[in-house]
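Researcher: Quick test of sequence recovery. Tokens follow.
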């Protein structure tokens, strides 16, 4: 444990030792013990979002992008048309996926620091009757912006269309209730707010939509209808499952329940975020987003104007002290990001701030 760095990233992220320990055994993928583990995984996933009775949980091997690709291919029929609401890199990725899968796709775009507007969605749906499905990114991990899910889901439902929700970086922490929010397919993965290890994505799909998805996907492995049929037939995965990842995910879901569910997890992340944001402002790093748009998942900071600042030096100085921040994907604005999710507490962020201050002094920043 002590030789692992702390990951301040949107995933893979810092996991609890119990979660990693759950991987220390072998499982026969077609053995009853693993079939029971898979059943527990599927039940617990549904419960996190209140999907029991209306939705089915369909896990799939791979990272989060695999489940987005499988969902677009399986839920949007070949003659359908997808409208993607995009205000960041993950919205753009969904557009690219639809194109690759041969689906007609339209994009409605906002700047990276602006939320999706439900009124504009309603207008676009009224104007184009060919659109059958709408794709939304709940928390746009590019910036940490939280899109207004309830109002958008209602607009989509009122227009008689189906919503595909990429809830990758929100599921398990931010509130999502499938009983009150009309969502046809919710997509997420094992290694974000669930605090599992990477290796599986999953879809919570409206049971009626799964029935209609048969034969839609042009891919053999990225086919949610076939994957679901496999689980229903014998409780088994169609192709080799990442058995240790499944064991870790089940342990992580038990730990989520023990923590008090998504509500308590969110309050821990909020405390992490608040500690970080207040301390960073004091060190001369303001937040990029308007606070009202920001989810406590990942924080995007503007660098100081001081020319002594270099992100690479900040990254390396923190890595040397055992903290890995997020070096990837800078947005259009000059900025950098620090994740607030994972098995981390406000005390970890207090230590991080001490380290950031030390690196700032090394760089010669005038704070
Ligand atoms: C992480 C993430 C994904 C999936 O990314 P992978 O690298 O394939 O796991 C998709 N959408 C959002 C919003 C994400 O945060």
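Model:
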């Amino acid at each position: 444990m002590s030789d692992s760095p702390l990951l301040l990233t949107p995933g893979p992220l810092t996991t609890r030792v119990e979660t990693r320990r759950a991987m220390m055994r072998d499982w026969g993928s077609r053995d009853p013990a693993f079939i029971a583990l898979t059943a527990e995984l599927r039940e617990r996933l549904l419960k996190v979002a209140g999907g029991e009775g209306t939705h089915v949980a369909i896990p799939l091997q791979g990272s989060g992008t695999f489940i987005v690709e499988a969902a677009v291919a399986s839920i949007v029929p070949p003659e359908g048309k997808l409208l993607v609401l995009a205000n960041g890199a993950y919205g753009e990725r969904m557009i690219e996926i639809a194109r690759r899968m041969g689906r007609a796709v339209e994009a409605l775009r906002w700047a990276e620091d602006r939320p999706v507007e439900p009124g504009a969605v309603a207008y676009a749906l009224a104007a184009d009757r060919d659109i059958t499905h709408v794709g939304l990114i709940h928390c746009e991990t590019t910036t940490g912006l939280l899109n207004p899910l309830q109002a958008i889901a209602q607009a989509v439902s009122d227009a008689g269309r189906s919503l595909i929700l990429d809830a990758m970086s929100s599921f398990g922490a931010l509130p999502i209730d499938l009983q009150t929010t009309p969502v046809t397919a919710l997509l997420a993965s094992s290694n974000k707010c669930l605090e599992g290890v990477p290796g599986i994505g999953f879809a919570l799909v409206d049971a009626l939509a799964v029935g209609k998805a048969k034969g839609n996907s042009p891919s053999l492995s990225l086919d949610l209808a076939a994957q679901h049929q496999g689980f229903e037939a014998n409780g088994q995965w169609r192709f080799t499952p990442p058995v240790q990842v499944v064991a870790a995910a089940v342990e992580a879901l038990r730990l989520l329940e023990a923590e008090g569910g998504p509500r308590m997890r969110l309050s821990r992340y909020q405390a992490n975020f608040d500690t970080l944001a207040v301390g960073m402002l004091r060190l001369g790093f303001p937040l990029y987003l308007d606070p009202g748009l920001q989810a406590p998942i990942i924080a995007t900071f503007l660098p100081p104007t001081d020319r002594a600042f270099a992100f690479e030096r900040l990254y390396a100085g923190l890595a040397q002290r055992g903290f890995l921040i997020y070096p990837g994907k800078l947005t259009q604005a000059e900025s950098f990001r620090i994740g607030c999710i994972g098995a981390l507490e406000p005390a970890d962020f207090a230590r991080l701030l001490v380290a950031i201050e030390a690196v700032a002094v090394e760089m010669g920043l005038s704070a």
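Residues 10-11, 63-65, 68, 90, 137, 141, 166, 168-169, 189 surround pyridoxal-5'-phosphate (CB under 6 Å).
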